Amino acid sequence: MKHTKLISGIIGIILGVVIAFFIPTPVGLSHSGMVVLASLVTANIFWIFNVIPSFVTGLLMLSSWVILRAVDFPTAFNLFSSTTMWIIIGGLGLGAAATKSGLINRIALNIMKLFPANFGGQTLALFTAGTIISPMIPSAHPKTAMSTPLALGISESLGYKNKTKESSGIFLAAIWGFLVMEASFLSATAQNYAFKGLLPQKAQSTLSWGNWFMMMLPWTVVALVFGFFLLKFLFAPKDDKPASKEFISKQLQELGPMSRNEKITAIIILIAIVFWILESTLKIPAAVTALCGVSILVATGVLTPQDISKRLSWNTIIFIGTVMALGNVMQVVKLTTWLRVILKPVISPMLSNVYITVIALPIIIYLCKFVVVSLISTGTLIIIALLPFFSTLSFNPAIIALVVTTSVNIWMLSYMDAPFLTGMAAVNDKMATRVALAKSSLGYMVINIIGLLLCVPIWKLMGIA
């Protein structure tokens, strides 16, 4: 593995140097454009083979632009002062408070208590809990780390043995609810903001919290309904009689009464979501709402300065900032214009019609996921490849971000989805079999395309398709 990384890194650097300094600059492209193209090729190789941490690769890419005078420092690092970066930081802060206080655990358990204690009931409970909790925590790893141990407890209380189809189904219900349904809400994961930030400014303004939810509503319904029946069909036991809810009751008893910190966190998050929904009416940027919320949580002692430094994934935040910078810089150096001419024969047919796009683009992303493991890296590479064509699309580029965010979350092989690995590690890989993962992922891949197709009429009504 180390040799693979070393060899890949050397090849990446050599290719970058050759493109930047030894290949004649093509007609229509400046030397600055060649430098950015070279750095992009090198960075992609580093990201695909995980040569060094992704955020370090991103920082080196931005720094290379300044060192080689492709663009100046303010242009290269402009995205780090954008509202997108600050809402990611604020959103992760709110999520840290919800996790630390125990609020998320309490919400999930109380929802589970309302449903029958059998496979179907608890699958529906995990779907419901995950969907409700998703917009509160913009990070997949804490949600899967928290939800899968709950799923293990439910599976054991229902009498399912480990690594059976039934335990696999309960595990996947937790993953489906808490991870897959992230695509329904802008605030449910930092990668949604990252993909949004790569779009042109006009397209970004389309994707407010409320618009994102409405644009994804048909997909959300399809993903929940079809997903529920898929898991029941694949994994439910023949005799699905209700069992005791003792596990859930015991967990709630251990939590005790709702704490002061939980109450404060719940109020702040509820207010934040309302303000995000009404962002265009209130004229208060979503980033400001999130940062005010985090500030109140720190002032009231729910979060400490140590929590801010340890509970926020700063390497992810930095990585997102570096990849979002690509879109702006590629346009500044006219690289997008040149790439549009080069790639037009291949990409234009796929983007000629919105229905063709929502079928073809997910399939391309599925194939890419066999090579590029990182969800954010995959989505970023796809959006960057399509960036030159945004000005010629017959539909709003915001649709591309939605298609990407639903399609990168596949788990045909466990290595394809890092949050899945987190969930599996949280239960010591006791629950799901590899065959169960593959079957459910294949089902999701089909459901995803059906859901996106049913979104198109809504997009047309909204005037963006």
From TrEMBL:
Claim: Membrane is one of the keywords in the record: yes
Transmembrane segments: 7-25, 45-67, 79-99, 170-190, 210-235, 261-278, 284-304, 316-334, 354-387, 399-421, 441-459
Membrane protein topology class: Multi-pass membrane protein
Pfam families for this protein: Na_sulph_symp
Superkingdom field: Bacteria
Chief place where the protein resides: membrane
Annotated keywords: Membrane, Transmembrane, Transmembrane helix
UniProt subcellular location: Membrane
Family the entry assigns: Belongs to the SLC13A/DASS transporter (TC 2.A.47) family. DIT1 subfamily.
Protein name: Anion permease
